[in-house]
Specification:
Blueprint: H1 2-5, H2 9-12, H3 19-41, H4 45-66, H5 76-97, H6 99-102, H7 132-141, E1 147-156, E2 168-174, E3 205-212, E4 215-222, H8 237-246, E5 255-260, E6 266-273, E7 278-285
Antiparallel strand pairs: 1-2, 1-5, 2-3, 3-4, 5-6, 6-7
Helix pairs in contact: 3-5
């Protein structure tokens, strides 16, 4: 479903603001809200498919009118409205397409026999992780076909240790936006450039992880991504802290670090302590020289 709505970004994020553009934005948001309401009223696959086909025709019309205009960043308000609407529609689509809703005996409670539980098959305990750089390494090592869209580690010491009392870490994964297709040599100069089709279908959910006291808890989040995702950082947390200390960061403090990007990836380190009047922030470009990792 999201792939059908992405052309609307060309309206919502169109270039210079004018009354006509604002009218198109309002029309696009109204159409998306209308589609969401229709999808959320669907009880079966056929209904959801009809809504999807209607949105396909609308999205194709939007794409034709947009031509080869390149979208600029949406305002924060537009981004919030767009995300909320598409996520609500995705949840409703998932319910409508669910086999549980379309089976003949839908609505009738069904009890499946539970297989016997063998103690030997119990999952091993999750490893407790309190080192920020190790947490980052394990996260990137286990991405598979997904990409990292959010990484925030809070209350980290200068030696890279995540404080056992206050420390947290939040990670979200998604489906990376595919690269733009290679230029067609037969395309006339000035003709519209086709955009890459997103891999996200509007329904899929991707893993998200939250560490508390070194223990990981798993949840899910939208797979939607509008870029290729965060790259494995070149700077370690310890190196980021060293650069912050060189610029005056209090060495004994606990810091919040966030990896930001793309295209230009960087670390944001922040220390806030209102009662003591301490507020420190620094952006550290993620351009450190590669280091040889010690064998484990």
């Amino acid at each position: 479903m999201i792939r059908l709505l992405l052309p609307a970004l060309l309206v919502l994020a169109a270039a210079p603001a004018c009354k006509k553009t604002e009218d198109l934005k309002a029309q696009a948001m109204a159409k998306m809200a209308e589609a969401r309401d229709k999808m959320c009223a669907c009880k079966d696959h056929a209904c959801a498919q009809k809504v999807q086909e209607e949105m396909t025709r609308w999205a194709q019309d939007i794409a034709r009118r947009a031509g080869d205009r390149r979208p600029e960043p949406m305002s924060e308000e537009d981004q919030q409205r767009y995300t909320a609407t598409t996520m609500q529609m995705a949840e409703c689509a998932q319910k409508a397409y669910s086999p549980e809703l379309t089976r003949p005996d839908a609505g009738v409670p069904r009890v499946d026999a539970a297989p016997p539980v063998e103690q030997a098959d119990a999952a091993p305990p999750v490893e407790k992780i309190t080192n920020a750089d190790r947490l980052i390494k394990l996260t990137f090592d286990s991405l598979g076909d997904l990409a990292l869209k959010k990484l925030v580690i809070s209350y980290v010491r200068a030696d890279g240790t995540i404080d056992d009392t206050y420390g947290t870490a939040d990670v979200e994964l998604g489906i990376p936006k595919p690269p733009d297709p290679a230029d067609d040599p037969d395309r006339p100069i000035g003709a519209p450039v086709p955009a890459a089709r997103p891999a996200y279908d509007g329904v899929q959910r991707c893993p998200s992880f939250a560490w508390r006291r070194g223990v990981r808890n798993e949840d899910t989040t939208s797979c939607l991504m509008l870029d290729a995702g965060l790259a494995r950082p070149k700077c370690s947390v310890v190196e980021v802290w060293k650069r912050a200390i060189d610029k005056g960061a209090p060495e004994k403090a606990l810091a919040v670090l966030e990896l930001r990007g793309p295209p230009d990836q960087s670390w944001k380190l922040r220390i806030d302590d209102a009662p003591r009047g301490i507020h420190f922030a620094i952006d550290v470009p993620d351009t450190c020289a590669p280091t040889l990792e010690a064998p484990r």
